[in-house]
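Notebook p. 47: complex prediction with 5'-O-[(L-methionyl)-sulphamoyl]adenosine.
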Amino acid sequence: MPYYVTTPIYYVNAQPHLGHAYTTIAADILARHMRQRGEDVFFLTGTDEHGEPVALAAEAQGISPKELADRNAARFEAMMPRLNVTNDFFIRTSDPRHIRRVQEVMQRIHDNGHTYLGTYEGWYCPRCADFKNENEIAEGNTCPIHHIPLLREREENWFFRLSTFQEPLERLYAERPDWVAPEARRNEALSFINSGLRDLSLSRGKFTWGVPVTWDPAHVFYVWFDALLNYYTALSFAREGEDLTDTFWPANFHLIGKDILKFHAVYWPAMLMAAGIELPRHEIVHGYLLLDGEKMSKSLGNVLDPFDVIDRFGTDALRYYCFREVSFGQDGSVSTTGFEQRYESELANDYGNLASRTIAMVNRYREGLVPAVATDAALAAEFDGLPETVAALLDRAEPSQALEEIWQRVRRLNRYVEERAPWKLARDPEAADRLDETLASLIEGVRVVTVLLHPYIPESVEKLLSALDRPSLDYAGAGFAAQGWGTRVSAIEPLFPKTR
Ligand code: MSP
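Predicted complex, C-alpha cells below:
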C-alpha cells in the first residue's frame, strides 16, 4: 500500500532548532514503521523559502533572499542525516519545478473563478506571514505567537474566495471526524470555520521574493499558497523522470505544529477543492516543545540546538527523548536535566543494561548459544497483541503512546530478570531447564521490543539485532516466538554508555 507522510516545510529565515527536528523525527518514526510493515512509503520534508519573513531576514543580513535560502536550506538538509531521518526527498520551494507547478495549480484556481482583485486592509504579522482576524490579536495589537507589534496593511491584492467554501468545509468536518487529530485541534479549526470565513489575500504586490502570479506578474503568490502546495508539487519531480502523484496522492498524514493549524485545516482543503484536487487523509497536529515555559522559537531566543544534543547524547537518545518526555499532541517542557535523567534511567538502565545483561548471561551460562527450548508461555502472553497495538497507535499517528506500550514490556523484562534470578538458577544443576527457558525467553523478549523500537532508536536497534544474529526488522517477525532459536549471540558494547 502506498503511504505518504509529510512535515511542514521549514522557514529558511532561521537555523534549525529542536522544534523543527521534533516534527521531522515524528514523521520518520511513522515512515520507518510503515516500511517495516512492507508498505510503499514516501516521506517528504523540505524548506519554505519565499515570502516576507525570508526577504526581511536577508535584508537585515545584507544578502539576497536566494543567498540566505541557499545557506539555511543547506543547514536543514544537513540536519536530516544527523537525525537519522530517512526522507525520500527534500523539497525547496525556490526549485523552478515547484514554481512551475504552483503556477499551474493556481492558474486552475483562477480559471475556476475562485479569485478576484480587491483591497486588503487589516492587521498582519510579518513573522507569521499571516493576516490576523480580530480574534487572533493579542494585547496592544501584537502577535500572540511572536509578541511583536502587528502591521496595519492596506494594499491591492488578488483574493481567494475562501468564504464560498464555508459549507463544503463544514461538510468535510461533519463527514470525516478524523480529518484533523487530536480532537481538541479539530474543534479549534471547526470553530474558526464556524465563526465565518472571510476571503483571503492570495497575492502580495509589495515585494518580489515569491512565485509570480501568472495572470498578473506584478504580484507574487502569498507565501502560504506556494508553501502548502509543496506537498502536492513534490511528487511530480521528486524522482527523476517519474511522476509519483498518482501513486502517493492524496497524502496519508500531514504532520504539523499547532501554530499552523488554520493554514492546513482550513485554507489548504479549500485550495484543493478550488483546484479540483483530492484532499489529504489526515492532518495530525502536535504541541510545542517548551523551554523555560515558552514555545521554543528563534524569535524568542530560547532554543536548544539539536546538534549539541546529538553531540552529547547521540541521535537515538534525542529521538527517544522527544517522544517520551512530551506526549505527542500536547505541549511539554524539555530540558537538559530531563535528557540526562531519561538517558540514565531509561535508555542506559531499563533498556541498554537489560540487553547487555541478557547477552552476557547467555555467554556466561550457555557459551553464547540461545537455548532452542520452548519460551515461557506466561511471559509470551504478556506480549500478546503488542505488535498489533503498536501498529494501531501508529496508524493514528500516536508515537508517544506506542512507545509507552513498548516500554511497559521493557520494564516487564527487567522484572522477569529479577523474578527468575538466572544467576541463582545457574548454581543449581536441577534448574538447568528453567535456566534454558529463562534465557530463551529473555532473549526473545529483548528481540521483540527491539524490532518494535526500530523507528525510535534505529542505530541501537541495528547494533543489538546484529549482536543477536537476528537482523530482520520485518514486522511479521515482531511477535513473541514460542521457541528459542539455538543461534549464537555476540557480546555488545554498552548501547548507551554512562560516561557521556
Ligand atoms: N514555513 C511554515 C510551514 C509551511 S508548511 C506548508 C512554518 N515554518 S517554521 O519553520 O516556522 O515551523 C514549522 C514547524 O516547526 C511547526 O509547525 C512545527 O511543526 C515545528 N516547530 C517549530 N517550533 C516548534 C516547537 N517549539 N515545538 C514543536 N514544534 C515546533 O511555519
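Notes: The mean pLDDT is 95. The first strand starts at residue 2 and ends at 6.
Next step: compare against the earlier run before touching the bench.
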